[in-house]
Specification:
The complex is a heterodimer of chains A (about 425) and B (about 240).
Chain A (H helix, E strand, L loop, with lengths): L57 H10 L1 H28 L5 H4 L5 E5 L11 E2 H9 L4 E16 L5 E9 L14 H7 L4 E5 L3 H4 L7 E4 L2 E9 L9 E5 H7 L8 E2 L1 E6 L2 H14 L3 E5 H15 L1 H31 L1 H9 L4 H36 L8 H27 L9
Parallel strand pairs in A: 4-8, 5-7
Antiparallel strand pairs in A: 1-10, 1-11, 2-9, 3-4, 3-6, 3-10, 6-7
Helix pairs in contact in A: 1-12, 2-10, 2-12, 2-13, 9-10, 10-13, 12-13
Chain B lengths: L2 E3 L6 E4 L11 E5 L6 H8 L11 E4 L2 E4 L5 H11 E4 L11 H13 L3 H14 L15 H13 L5 E5 L7 H18 L2 E5 L11 E6 L2 E6 L11 E2 L3
Helix pairs in contact in B: 3-4, 3-5, 5-6
The complex binds adenosine-5'-triphosphate and magnesium ion.
Magnesium ion (MG) binds next to α1 of chain B.
Chain lengths: ~425, ~240
């Protein structure tokens, strides 16, 4: 008897007479095989790299998920639930905080240029007009001349005494001025050209102590006259006060030097070009900040959302949603893995490294997360339509959707890590009883 | 080899000083009453359960290695290269086709690429008469077919040793016979050592060697072609 050695064995395909001289009919040669040159030679015999990373293994995890749809449905549902919760909460608050970006949303400029790192429209500090104007006019693709936009908080003295903070919005008033709020009718614009005249939203009448047209009031010590009211410029913290550049400069005289402005506004020939110009400006001049109107609008809302307690509140609620999703997903993956424990144990007995099975479970958890996102999207969409019908606006920004998607996948992967405990406990010995 | 379970007063020997020789090209049958230690012996021999005392030697390419002196990763590699298992249940993944059950071993174990794993797995299924069944999932296969897929999974990496614990217990005798013929053909044509645990007397005619285990003690009942064991000096496993 020869010592047992791999290289000397194995005429795999041969039809072999058994002890009684019969031929086994279940061990047949492959078609067209005459004298087999060891067709099943041991693939392990010459290899030294036993566990090279294999290339395509996606299918096993996905296939299992699909085969046991009902089992994994709970995990997918939980993940989808937490994603929906997150997106809707943020969306609702962004809707609520829309008032913070009203000056941006109601003007027709495509590009806003302001001071360094300005994140919300009420936070701009004075910048030099000439320097920044020169930087802007050097760009191609702009439509019309850049306009000044003077904005800052001011103190309003109510007729019956008492102070109120308001926010001055001083803009050009030409018929096609980019900075003039779109709620201003041509009549209101021409009324505003009179020195020391202002327009406010009708919902702010009470707050400012004004009662009707022609009422006079002091802002930063300058006596101004109310020449009209508008709708659609509701405020949260400080009433928006619209006026001409001249009036604004007078009110904000101690704050703005004559050669300074808070913002420069300009239109671009296309939204695409606006983005390009903004990127170029920000790259070239780090000491100022250019925004497209869209981005600036979102930036204002996001700033107030995260700065106020509301941000913390939704943070907690989202965390809770994620936790619920994570626990259910982990439970689903755990029990699914335990259900396949005997199959995994067989592979382990055959010498297949445990990390391959870890990989499979992690891949499954990734796909549970991905499926959860796919399920969540239409639900978010329908619920936001429902909310809109009920008068609550849900803002679905791609940044929020992408952030929620990433968090959801991370939650699913975290649950997968938790479920790995079950893989660790699988022993091939359990198959031998 | 010896192996016990439990401590102190509860200590009970499942194997008492047992010696077994397995040879290439032979199908060895291990019989014995329930609880006599058959599965324990199989586990110790196959590198799944450490013995209390004693050694398990394997001759690997002309060198003798001590299976229980290896580190865990070494033993895992040894099993990967040299051992195939067939267990009582079929233990097939419900979601995978017959072909994939085999491919997964080649891809995850040997790191073969898709094409090579597929052709090897197809080849093996053909030899097992499962050509028509290769894209069926376990739920669509009969018991006998499932056990043949499980055998294919054990054989596809061309192991030196094949361990089978009650491989036919879930099958009727007709299907059981098929399984045994397959295993014996594998032993003879591929010079593998097959170790089958069973308590079915009808299997005896398929065995080259028959061992009886009783209360942890081993007797050789019938050994027609008893070759003299060769013991080479023990070396490290690398
Ligand atoms: N993990 C364990 N812990 C404690 N005792 C064990 C363990 N595994 C086996 N035993 C005991 O060792 C003895 C031998 O068990 P083993 O599983 O080897 O028997 P067997 O011959 O395979 O029986 P069967 O034919 O029923 O499968 C039994 O008495 C069993 O109770
Ligand atoms: Mg047993």
């Amino acid at each position: 008897m020869l010592p047992l050695s791999v290289s000397e064995r194995g005429l795999g395909g041969e039809v072999c007479p058994n002890a009684d001289g019969e031929r086994s009919e279940y061990w047949r040669p492959a078609a067209g095989e005459t004298s087999p040159p060891n067709p099943l030679h041991n693939p392990f015999a010459e290899r030294t790299d036993y566990f090279p990373e294999d290339r395509r293994r996606v299918s096993y995890a996905l296939q299992t998920l699909w085969h046991e749809k009902t089992r994994y449905a709970a995990g997918v549902g939980a993940v989808a639930f937490s994603a929906v919760l997150m997106v809707l909460q943020v969306g609702l608050l962004l809707g609520l905080f829309e008032t913070t970006s009203i000056p941006v949303d109601h003007t027709s400029a495509d590009i806003w240029v302001g001071s360094q790192d300005v994140r919300s429209v009420d936070l701009g500090v004075p910048i030099g007009v000439n320097l920044h104007m020169a930087r802007l006019t050097g760009k191609s693709g702009l439509v019309g001349q850049p306009e000044l936009y003077l904005a800052n908080y001011a103190n309003l003295t109510r007729p019956n005494g008492g102070m109120e903070r308001c926010f001055i919005l001083g803009s050009g008033l030409d018929p096609d001025a980019a900075g003039a709020a779109d709620v201003l009718t041509p009549e209101l614009k021409s009324a505003l050209t009179m020195p020391d005249s202002i327009v406010i939203d009708e919902s702010d009448l009470n707050r400012t102590g004004l009662t009707g047209l022609g009422d006079r009031i002091k802002i930063n010590g300058v006596e101004v006259t109310l020449v009209g009211t508008v709708r659609g410029m509701k405020s949260l913290a400080a009433p928006w006060v619209m006026c001409s550049l001249t009036t604004a400069r007078k009110i904000l005289a101690t704050y703005l030097q004559p050669d300074q402005t808070t913002y420069l506004l300009v239109r671009a020939e296309s939204p695409q070009r606006a983005k390009e110009i903004v990127n170029e400006l920000n790259a070239e001049y780090p000491e100022m900040q250019a925004h497209t109107a869209d981005d600036f609008s979102f930036s204002c809302r996001w700033y107030w959302l995260t700065r106020t307690k509301a941000g913390i509140a939704i943070g907690y609620a989202a965390l809770l949603g994620l936790l619920v999703g994570a626990v259910i997903t982990a439970q689903t993956l755990y029990s699914a893995t335990m259900a396949s424990a005997r199959e995994f144990a067989t592979l382990l007995a055959l010498g297949i490294p445990r990390k391959k099975i870890y990989g499979l479970v992690m891949e499954q958890s990734f796909w549970v997360g991905a499926a959860g996102i796919v399920v969540a999207w239409p639900v978010v969409y329908l619920l936001s339509l429902g909310a809109a019908a009920g008068g609550a606006k849900v803002v679905l920004r791609w940044e929020v959707l992408a952030g929620a998607a990433v968090l959801t996948i991370l939650t699913a992967l975290g649950s997968g890590l938790f479920a790995l405990r079950s893989v660790r406990s699988i022993q091939p010995m359990s198959l031998l009883r | 080899m010896s192996r016990s379970f439990g401590d102190g007063a509860l200590k009970r020997f499942a194997l008492r000083d047992v010696t077994v020789d397995l040879f290439p090209g032979q199908l060895a049958l291990l019989m014995g009453p329930s609880g006599s230690g058959k599965s324990t012996l199989l586990a110790v021999l196959s590198g799944l359960l450490p013995p209390d005392s004693g050694q398990v030697f394997a001759e690997d390419q002309g060198r003798t290695v001590d299976v229980w002196a290896m580190t865990d990763p070494e033993r895992e590699q040894f099993r990967l290269r040299h051992t195939g298992f067939i267990f009582q249940g079929y233990n097939l993944f419900p979601a995978l086709t017959a072909l994939q059950q085999l491919e997964i071993v080649l891809k995850w174990g040997a790191g073969l690429d898709n094409a090579e794993a597929r052709s090897r797995a197809e080849d093996m299924l053909k030899r097992l008469g499962l050509d028509q069944q290769k894209s069926k999932k376990p739920a669509q296969l009969s018991g006998g077919e499932k056990q043949r897929v499980a055998i294919g999974r054990a054989l596809v990496k061309d192991p030196t040793f094949i361990f089978a614990d009650e491989p036919t217990s879930a099958l009727d005798w007709e299907n059981g016979k098929v399984v045994l013929e397959l295993l014996r053909a594998a032993a003879h044509s591929r010079q593998a050592s097959i170790f089958v645990v069973s308590h079915d007397d009808r299997m005896k005619e398929y065995a080259d060697v028959i061992y009886h285990l009783n209360e942890g003690r081993l007797e050789v009942e019938h050994n027609p072609a008893a070759p003299a064991p060769i013991h080479l000096p023990v070396e490290g496993f690398s």
